[in-house]
Design goal:
heterodimer; A: alpha/beta; Rossmann fold; 2 domains; 6-stranded mixed β-sheet; 4-stranded antiparallel β-sheet; B: mainly alpha
Chain lengths: ~325, ~240
């Protein structure tokens, strides 16, 4: 259990984190979202005990991060932003060092090192200095280091940054697998990651929590939630738009400017348009190539939430 | 204790993983040889002693120690590993100590490798080996003082160059504090206790006594207190400047 209580941090008058409160229970994968400079990394640095907050408390399974620092840090596996590692070491030695400091005794240490090396597919680079590794390998070495001692809390700052699509998929699978009985906090600016791995999302901007909900609830905030998209080429655009727009519960019909014959029927609140649209298609015998219901566009929601917020702040400053 | 050892070993291995340790040791040996034989007139003195060898150590350390100490913390700060290190379950004290000890042992190793000189004096005459041992001990303690200063200044910046220069300047002040030309500035007007205090702060004053074979507890204590003070300052600086 992680409890964060009214956490604040100001850097020389700049309020980086401004009263953040939340708690996380085992089994949850919490996605930390926010524009650059929103206070994500600063919050993570305070959660892991790297920097001291100006005010507020963080407790990890009852251990205060600042008064019981060493005990609290034992519970955590942490991948800092940018996956830093000592460049002159090989992954093998690096893991051995982290294992020793983490208090893993032989033979457990060697066993665990072998396990994480296998899990993150580091075998080919085990004996090569970390400075010579590609970005993807570096990142995976960082993740290996974080999960080495099988921590109850795993905090990962941008874990898939710099990975290719296969590796991204692999790491996400890994995170999902690890989540069973522990707490995972992932900071990211990749929105697809949230739907892929997280059970809960916190969006933070200007140091404050804007939203704390499940990814599905977040999608529901999108104006495209339950919108019906269909692909009908070879037809008069205006006629189709008119016919779709006449259906009950339709807010607007959007025609894609760069995709010929692509329509998005945006629903009014609570309206379920899928059946009516299908019926219409059958009646009119439109040669539909594709039809599906959108779940909502996260990037849309994200932009809406974080930019309106920024405008408010600007206005407040002007006033 | 366990974590100090782990950090100590990691650091020491990293010195030898790069050419740094070898370059340091070779330059130290070459320069100490040059100083002893050419500037110190080792042979012309016709005395079986290592005084001309130890005499130049403060000056040798002045340039070589900052080169070792500059990377202690600056590099961690620059590459972001500081965050990794300080979120591991170790105390800041262990990290500071482990790193300092590794650098101190590296210098100690370089110092030990000057043993051919000791063999030479023993071959040429009958030196007082007690004095020589005291000299080595004093020199190593003084190196610790320089390193502790370097550790603190390295913690204050992410630039190794700035760390090098600052360490050099501060160490120079501590060496020069015992010089007549510095003390003369104070002598005319300042009370005698202040002059003594300034002279008492100097590495030279304390090192000279030790290198002559006079093992005074106060001199040894001076270096140990210096080390403790600057290492404490290192920890405070790191704690204060972590977020930068």
């Amino acid at each position: 259990m992680i409890t964060v209580d009214n956490l604040k941090k100001d850097f020389d008058g700049l309020q980086a984190v401004d009263g953040v409160t939340f708690s996380v229970s085992p089994g949850e994968v919490l996605g930390f979202l926010g524009p650059n400079g929103a206070g994500k990394s600063t919050t993570m640095k305070m959660l892991t005990g790297f920097i001291k907050p100006s005010a507020g408390r963080v407790s990890l399974y009852g251990k205060d991060v600042f008064t019981q620092a060493v005990e609290a840090k034992r519970l955590v596996g942490y991948l800092p932003e940018g996956a830093p590692a000592w460049d002159d070491m090989t992954p093998e030695r690096f893991l051995a060092f982290v294992g020793t400091v983490r208090g893993l005794a032989e033979p457990t240490r060697s066993q665990r090192i072998a396990e994480v090396i296998k899990l993150l597919e580091l075998e080919p680079v085990c004996g090569r200095p970390i400075e010579k590794l590609s970005k993807g390998y570096r990142r995976r070495v960082g993740i290996a280091q974080a999960i080495l001692h099988d921590p109850r809390i795993l905090i990962l700052d941008e874990p898939t940054d710099g990975l290719d699509p296969n590796q991204k998929h692999h790491v996400r699978e890994l995170i999902r697998g690890l989540a069973q009985d522990r707490i995972v906090i992932v900071s990211t600016h990749i929105l697809e990651e949230v739907t892929a791995v997280c059970t809960r999302t916190i969006i933070i901007a200007n140091g404050r929590i804007l939203v704390d909900c499940t990814p599905a609830e977040l999608e529901a905030r999108s104006r495209y939630h339950k919108a019906v998209a269909l692909q009908v080429p070879e037809l008069d655009e205006q006629e189709v738009t008119r016919a779709l727009g006449a259906l009950e519960g339709v807010l607007t019909v959007e025609v894609s400017p760069n995709h010929a014959g692509r329509y998005t029927v945006v629903a009014q609140e609570q309206a379920d348009l899928f059946q009516p649209v299908c019926q219409l298609v059958q009646e009119k015998k439109w040669p539909v190539e594709e039809i599906f219901m959108e779940r909502g566009r996260l990037d849309d929601v994200f932009r809406q939430l974080t930019s309106s917020r920024k405008n408010e702040a600007c206005e407040a400053r002007v006033a | 204790m366990n974590s100090i050892t782990a950090i100590f070993r990691r650091e020491l291995a990293s010195y030898f993983a790069t050419p740094l340790a070898y370059i340091f040791i070779i330059i130290f040996l070459v320069l100490s040889g040059v100083f002893t034989f050419y500037l110190g007139n080792f042979y012309e003195r016709r005395q079986a002693e290592l005084a001309p060898f130890f005499m130049f150590h403060p000056w040798l350390y002045l340039f070589l120690i900052p080169a070792v100490s500059m990377r202690l913390w600056s590099e961690e700060r620059k590459s972001g590993t500081l965050e990794l290190l300080l979120t591991l379950p170790i105390s800041l004290r262990s990290a500071v100590l482990g790193k300092f000890l590794s650098a101190w042992v590296l210098v100690g190793l370089a110092l030990m490798l000057t043993f051919p000189l000791w063999l030479t004096v023993n071959y040429l005459g009958e030196p007082d080996n007690g004095v020589i041992v005291a000299g080595y001990l004093g020199s190593w303690l003084m190196a610790g003082g320089f390193l502790a200063i370097g550790s603190c200044l390295s913690a204050s910046t992410s630039s190794q160059v700035i760390s090098f220069i600052l360490t050099l300047v501060i160490c120079f002040l501590f060496v020069a504090a015992g010089f007549p030309m510095v003390l003369n500035v104070f002598q005319g007007w300042a009370p005698a206790t202040l002059v003594d205090a300034v002279a008492g702060l100097s590495f030279l004053t304390h090192f000279e006594a030790v290198s002559r074979g006079v093992l005074d507890v106060r001199d040894l204590l001076y270096f140990l207190v210096m080390i403790a003070f600057w290492l404490l300052a290192t920890a405070i600086v790191i704690d204060m400047k972590k977020a930068d």
